[in-house]
Amino acid sequence: MPPWGAALALLLAAIALLGLLAPRLRRLGRRAVGVRTLPGAGGPDDEEEADGGGPADQFGHGREPLPGGCRLICKPSALAQCLLRALRRSAALEPGPRSWLSGPHLQTLRHFVLPAGPGPELAREYLQLADNGLVALDWVVGPCARGRRVTNAGGLPAVLLVIPNAWGRLTRNVLGLCMLALERGYYPVIFHRRGHHGCPLVSPRLQPFGDPSDLKEAVTYIRFRHPAAPLFAVSEGSGSALLLSYLGECGSSSYMTGAACISPVLRCREWFEAGLPWPYERGFLLHQKIALSRYTTALEDTVDTHKLFRSRSLREFEETLFCHTKSFPISWDAYWDHNDPLRDVDEAAVPVLCICSADDPVCGPPDHFLPTELFHSNPYFFLLLSRQGGHCGFLRQESLPAWSHEVILEYFRALTDFFRTEERIKGLSKHRGSLLGGRRRWGTLQKREVSPSSSLDEIFSWKRSYTR
């Protein structure tokens, strides 16, 4: 066992013990960030939910009740009505028997602490980027279940781009989503940042929290490989900052048809500055230190590695790694000016469904971490708020996948059907810029296809890719 193995084992044991006390710590976990709990967001004592109250009450107008005590919060539109109908028919939201895993800490720890277990078959590609850095794409190629459904009427499976959390840990949550998506006829691919999950760090540069430059090149490559297939994207937890930054920066040039975020961290700077409940803060921090320890020598010329590995908080770690660099130091304010995932959110032109829980112990209560004005004012953003689910949990009975996975795939199906119906009625050449309140039409669906015979040098900024 490596030197840090014993410390990690003790920490995980402490976190697991904390999870076993979840019923008593449910309110404590929500108060740990210093904000009052939500009325109706707790456990079985809040059954007065039947009169329409609950965790979304404080969000004012624009909320719609759904099965299982969930609420859809959005700006009224034709697409919102279509999504609402689909969610009301969803069997995944129907309340089932109460599980011993219903506590927020247990739901969270089950995905982040327990081993991922046997997952899908992956085929990895390494992409060399413009600055000679490498990112990895893990294509899910099996196992292929019998009776696999095709998601696109044209016969080509839709590509599902999955972005894990910002710490680089491939969780049970991500692998479960990929397995379910493959079964439903999608072609999943997992994006790994520089130095994450076995991707070599060949240049002394890591990807900042909300910098989508590497993701842009990866999406361009995916589009080249599958020019006629619809492209959807899903992000997990802190990885949502990368996806939202991409959608905001690309705007109408995005190749994506739809996107979804599971337990997204939306107010990222405040999240770093407030800190997490100590077990999660220490766990995520330790994971990052272990992941970067193999690159200590490579990073010595760019950052103060001694200070980096002595960091006592996620903020100190992030600030040392990306702000206090030896070559180009910047302030904490300047860092977030370029990495806030919502900095260009008004430019996003792709529907985004955010699935959040009122008992999330990592993000905190909704009135603290959710920018509700975004969902009330922007017709492209939808918030599905549940009473329970923890952080990236949303568990059901042991043999069933997380209900968030089912809902996301149903949401993508509803988007596809809605766009196809609208285009059949209005015609492909009409109203490309005015589906929601006069804004840009869904050009993401029918981008000009790239000829397979085109030169790679004309399309990509990198010169070659590595495959294993």
Supply database-style keywords.
alpha/beta; Rossmann fold; 2 domains; 11-stranded mixed beta sheet; 17 helices; 13% strand; disordered C terminus; AB_hydrolase_fold; signal; phosphoprotein; short-chain carboxylesterase activity
Question: Can you walk through the features of this model?
Answer:
The chain is α/β, with parallel strands linked by helices and 468 residues long. It has 2 domains: 67-266 and 341-420, Alpha/Beta hydrolase fold, catalytic domain (Rossmann fold), CATH 3.40.50.1820; 269-340, no CATH class. Helices cover 36% and strands 13% of the residues. It contains 17 helices and 11 strands. It has helices spanning 3-20, 22-31, 78-88, 104-112, 172-183, 213-225, 240-250, 268-274, 278-293, 296-299, 305-308, 314-322, 332-339, 366-369, 372-377, 403-426, 456-459, and strands spanning 63-65, 71-73, 121-128, 134-142, 159-163, 187-192, 231-236, 258-262, 352-357, 381-386, 465-467. The chain has an 11-stranded mixed sheet with strand order 1-2-10-9-8-7-5-6-4-3-11, sandwiched between helices. The longest helix is centred in the C-terminal third of the chain and has 24 residues, at 403-426. The two termini are 28 Å apart. The relative contact order is 0.17.
